[in-house]
Amino acid sequence: MDLRGRNFLTLLDYTPEEIRYLLDLAKDFKRKKHEGVEHRYLSGKNIVLLFEKTSTRTRCAFEVAGLDLGMGVTYLDPGSSQMGKKESIEDTARVLGRMYDGIEYRGYDQKIIEELANNAGVPVWNGLTTEFHPTQMLADIMTVEENFGYLKGIKLVFMGDARNNVANSLMVVCAKMGMHFVSCGPKELWPSEELVKRCEEIAKETGATISMTEDVKEASTGADVIYTDVWVSMGEPDDVWAERIKLLNPYQVNKEIMANANSNAIFLHCLPSFHDLKTTIGNDIHQKFGLTEMEVTDEVFESSNSKVFEEAENRLHTIKAVIYATMRERDE
């Protein structure tokens, strides 16, 4: 499988076979990491991380992945680049593409990363946009496969705001890998009809199914994976909290929902999560609305069903696979 020079903007651009290759590569990198086997395959190369939205897991995963592969890594936070302010996205891409061998972008509209990719001349990777979060998806399905031993036929249920980048990308990856995706939440927060139709077309070829429902019990019954995300995404205004809490509180992942799922079902969350009052935002919401937990209860988050920290670790191994696969010069 030769992915050299490819961008990684959305999993819509990748075949099931290519996704399978990246997963297998990530598993090998995870083994090497745990066994202390050095893998500085990209020594002498350099990458830059462009962050318009901050992150813990994405930044750390890209930085450690780059360093493990032997590369130099430059991090540019939201205040350290003139992109879109004094310098156009196109010009920024053309400059950075002459200095670096790969570019990661985490920020806003998908069109921004597409413009970077069209002008950089080096691989560009999506660390998160408003529409898609493909590196998260590789970590998610790697975690699913580690727990069940397979992907095809797995029923994955997303509870909550099903139009956000995580839910969009879950629908895509489930369609690609022959999984059964269920979006469970209020109709006004369902994904776009255009993306649903596109995923349904993919599903016809892979044996996957795509469905939407507002019925929590219908969705969670027989589920293998229950997945949720925060109710208000990064960059959204604070004044949406009241409406979002009203809409999504019925879709909180709790012990009743997990009891509807299969006995060996797992819980996933891309993190960070508001499952207690140990954050400033969690405390603020508690003061305003009286909630002690939001999208998931602490009981579920801390349960044996929860695989969120394995999932978080897998961000490193899957991102490393993407970097290596798109930048390698020869087989190692």
Quickly give the structural class: alpha/beta
Largest sheet: 5 strands, parallel
Distance between the termini: 13 Å
Give the H and E element order. HEHEHEHEHEHEHEHEHHEHHH
Work out the oligomeric state of the chains in this entry.
single chain
Mean pLDDT: 95
Number of helices: 13
Count of β-strands: 9
Weakly predicted, low-confidence segments:
none
Mind telling me the C-alpha Rg? 19 Å
Question: Strand content of the residues, in percent?
Answer: 5-15%
Helical residues, percent: 40-55%
Report strand order across the widest sheet: 7-6-5-8-9
Shape: globular
How would you characterize this protein structure?
This protein has a five-stranded parallel β-sheet. A four-stranded parallel β-sheet has the order 2-1-3-4, sandwiched between helices. The chain contains 13 helices and nine strands. The longest helix has 20 residues, at 16-35. The protein starts with 15 loop residues before the first helix and ends in a 5-residue tail after the last helix. The protein has helices at residues 16-35, 57-68, 89-99, 110-120, 134-148, 165-176, 193-206, 216-220, 241-248, 255-260, 280-289, 298-301, 308-327, and strands spanning 46-51, 72-76, 102-106, 124-128, 155-159, 180-184, 209-213, 225-228, 266-269.
